[in-house]
Amino acid sequence: MATTKATRAVGGPDHHPGIDWEAAERSPEFRELIRKKRSFVVPATVFFLAWYFGFVILAGYAPDFMGREFLADGLTVGYVLALSQFAMTWILGAWYLRKADREFDPLAERAAQVALRRRDDGGAS
Amino acid sequence: MTPIAAVNGTALAVFGVIVAVTLVISWFASKRVNTATDFWAAGRGLTGPQNGFAIAGDYMSAASFLGIAGLIYLFGFDGFMYSVGFLVAFLTVLFLLAERMRNAGKYTIADVLSYRLKQEPARAAAALGTLTVVAFYLIAQMVGAGVLIEGLVEIDFSLAVLLTGAFMVSYIILGGMLATSWVQIIKAFLLMTAAVVMTIWVLAKVSWNPIDLFTEARSESAEGEAYLKPGLFLSSPLDTVSLGLGLVLGTAGLPHILMRFFTVPNAKAARSSVMWAMALIGAFYVMTTALGFGARAILGQAGEEAAGATGNGALPLLADNLGGEFFQAIIAGVAFATILAVVAGLVISASGAVAHDVWSNIVRRGQDSESEEVWVAKIAAVVIGAVAIGIAILGGEGLNVSFMVGLAFAVAASANFPALLLALTWRRFNTTGAITGVLVGVISSVALVIISPTVWPGPDSEGGLISGYDLANPGIISIPLGFVGCWLGTVLSRERVEEVSFDELYVRSETGLGAEAGTGLTLTGRSDGSHDADERELVETR
């Protein structure tokens, strides 16, 4: 504990020479974390950007379509699509949090433990 | 006389209460803030929900509260486009930066950018990006505050700016990030309460049918059907897309927002704070429907003159219409608290760039003491505050607030966001790439705004300075340029030296291994030992 706490606050981030970061980065545990995380974050990012820019492009280039009535007089397609952006943000956010708590955090914890164990066993380098 | 002038006494009393409460909090905080981590990062002791409220308080400026309601009142649907962009932007923050910033960073975004690059040049580049964004954003807020206070309580513009600046600097000198965070939390609570009360009130007036809001607003607008369609405010389609791009990527480059992720104990709290912020900010922006369209339905065309060219006066007018002078004074007080919380967050992030990045790590090369760093930070906060007050007073009410905020988002998206994202994810990225990326991002976004037809030759002229170029929002050009700048600088330089391996930053940012610990600081005291889960890991395995 003392090693990390005592380090001077200024002068850049604290580095941990005891840990073999290269091995940690290559460890199967870390690779699995990255693979699992990417398989959610990349499609989710592509989806939200597509949904958002679909909306923005329609607003820019198809104002008449956006002004069309949807289900009731006064409610426009544009407003309903705008509300769908709010729903999308909340749903994707909550979904990510759930995945992170249940899946990514335990994997990150395991990858960190493996790196620390390697250091403590003197197995580094 | 507009009805606004009459609220003088009550509004002053409400403003007084807000100032008193926030100063008492700062005084409490001043007794607890000792270390640099306390000062910059509130000891990393905030919980996820607390930081979520603080992010909401940091993010939603007067431009959101008065500005968007005003834009919707004047231009209908197009105003709501801003609401959507401001919220969706938090998915970029959540997926790409929030947890990584917490794990890799310390006090400023320069800590993350310079982690594996050459300390001094990388820090200088990040400090430039931070200070440019804060300068535009801060001056916009100060001018907005002056106009608001002058209009609502009839004190002189210069005095109003001076007082706002004095309070914002006091919070920071007294209580650093701890005080700033609690000012922001209280403000978020006040803002949400005010929005809920006004929304319910407006809905009661349209017999609880939200759809009647739209039909009544449409019939009260001279534009008729067009009021509910895009195109009244954002008339160029490409500009609309460019604005959307700037909003959705700009938030992830705002230094005062990113700095908030250093105030929580770990990555889990960082992401939960984004979720809380998204819930609050989203709920608020949904309610801008009732505030903006409601203002149109209730005030009609009669309010247009009093609401002003930007529509900023629409919300106070609506408040007066709903609940009379007393309620209008409350809403004015909430708007005042809103501005105070945002400017405090901006100044602490700028003082971080000056004291932590430039002074401690570049000038003193990390040889100064922690107390010196905090002292320099306080001096920097005073100087930055004084400069902002000066420019706001000199520029006066003529400075266009929404244009300056738009410029801040454009620089954040074009300079800070590409460099940070690539530093965290691209192995080959190097110091030259970071410097060229930030410079290209800053210069291109500022230059494109200057040659945009709204600035030069001016809003009333036909066509732009360069024929064919008519974008008011530079994002669609300057953001790709920022990324290209990062890439070109990286591949063209022969630089190979890495002071720390990419592997270290990568593993640390993704797992939290080795991340900065908290000091257990809270507003009411200090708990023993560390909060930090990662610290515990290090102990247990020994």
Main sheet makeup of chain B: 2 strands, antiparallel
Largest interface summary? A-B, 70 and 92 residues
Instruction: Give the mean pLDDT of chain B.
Output: 88
> How much helical structure, as a percent, in the residues of chain A?
over 70%
- Evaluate the radius of gyration of chain A: 23 Å
Q: Provide the residue-averaged pLDDT of chain A.
A: 86
Into which percent range does the helicity of residues of chain B fall?
over 70%
Shape of chain B: globular
Biggest sheet of chain A, in brief? 2 strands, antiparallel
- Put simply, the count of helices of chain B is 20
In terms of quaternary structure, the protein is heterodimer
| Uncertain residue segments of chain A | 1-12
Describe this structure in words.
The complex is a heterodimer of chains A (125) and B (542). In chain A, 74% of the residues lie in helices and 6% in strands. Chain A is mainly alpha-helical. Chain A is rod-shaped and about 70 Å long. The model of chain A is unreliable at 1-12 (pLDDT under 50). Helix content of chain B is 73%, strand content 1%. Chain B is built from 20 helices and 2 strands. In chain B, strands 1-2 form a two-stranded antiparallel sheet. In chain B, helix 7 packs across helix 8 (157-205). The chains are: A mainly alpha (125), B mainly alpha (542). The interface between A and B is large, with 70 and 92 residues.
Can you describe this structure in just a few lines?
Helix content of chain A is 74%, strand content 6%. Chain A has 125 residues and is mainly alpha-helical.
Features:
heterodimer, A: 125 residues, mainly alpha, two-stranded antiparallel sheet, 2 strands, 74% helix, 6% strand, rod-shaped, disordered N terminus, B: 542 residues, two-stranded antiparallel ribbon, disordered C terminus
